[in-house]
Write a structure and sequence with these properties.
The protein is an alpha+beta fold. The two termini are about 35 Å apart. The chain is globular, with a radius of gyration of 18 Å. Strands 1-5-4-2-3 form a five-stranded mixed β-sheet. One of its GO terms (biological process) is protein K48-linked deubiquitination.
């Protein structure tokens, strides 16, 4: 009963600032799926310079990948990701906002195409954690206890598709992509306020901000009232 009361109070507070949310499948990739979908959905409202900025932010990843002992074909996954971003660029130039968003939804139902996008995001996250171990080791129990094997952590906790994203994954990915991310946390606690965590804030206000709704073990997309 206390849980229900707190949840109702939090949801009521949310409705003051947020108009709707989009449910995302509850698999281990819900963070990556909701993050990239929310970002891509907003591309139609910004100039094509944003896609070029994003792709530029990923340019150093191949060189870093080559220095690491991570599995997978970086170039194949990168090509799938870049190809889809370029498709978005092309579609937004010829479609209305609503038509673009409908196109994106239909594309997201192509599981193989989207699966490669999500695998690439996991790989980028792993590359960043393995490259910047000092920055992230305090957030990873094994590394903080003097076992500096970031590769093992990424092989077990980041790359497998069934593994949920920990907060360190959110930080690593947004550090690379430089995409602002806010997480509205309704993990019920004794307070009746939703907790908003700013994971990454961009100095560039033209970059779309991704806002996700988090409840224990799951992320969905949430939309602010305009």
């Amino acid at each position: 009963a206390i849980y229900s009361h707190l949840l109702c109070a939090i949801l009521q507070k949310l409705s003051a600032n947020y108009s709707e949310y989009r449910k995302v499948p509850g698999d281990g990739s819900c963070f990556y799926r909701s993050f990239i979908y929310s970002y891509l959905e907003q591309l139609v409202k910004v100039s094509h310079e944003e896609e070029l900025r994003l792709l530029g932010a990923l340019e150093t990843m191949w060189e870093k990948f080559q220095r690491l002992r991570l599995p997978g074909s970086y170039s194949d996954l990168r090509d799938a990701f870049v190809g889809f971003i370029l498709e978005c660029m092309e579609q937004k130039q010829k479609l209305s906002v609503s038509a673009y968003q409908e196109w994106l939804f239909q594309e997201s139902q192509n599981e193989q195409k989207f699966a490669n996008m999500l695998l690439y995001l996991r790989l980028v996250t792993a590359i960043e954690i393995c490259t910047e171990v000092e920055q992230f080791k305090a957030f990873i129990a094994d590394l903080d206890q003097g076992k500096p094997d970031a590769t093992k952590y990424c092989l077990e906790e980041v790359l497998p598709v069934e593994e949920d994203a920990q907060q360190v994954n959110l930080t690593a990915l947004t550090n690379v992509l430089q995409v602002p991310l806010r997480v509205v946390n309704i993990d019920v606690s004794p307070i009746e306020e939703p907790n908003i965590h700013i994971i990454y804030e961009s100095p560039d206000s033209s970059v779309p901000t991704v806002t996700l709704l988090y409840r224990p073990g799951h992320y969905d997309i949430i939309y602010e009232k305009s």
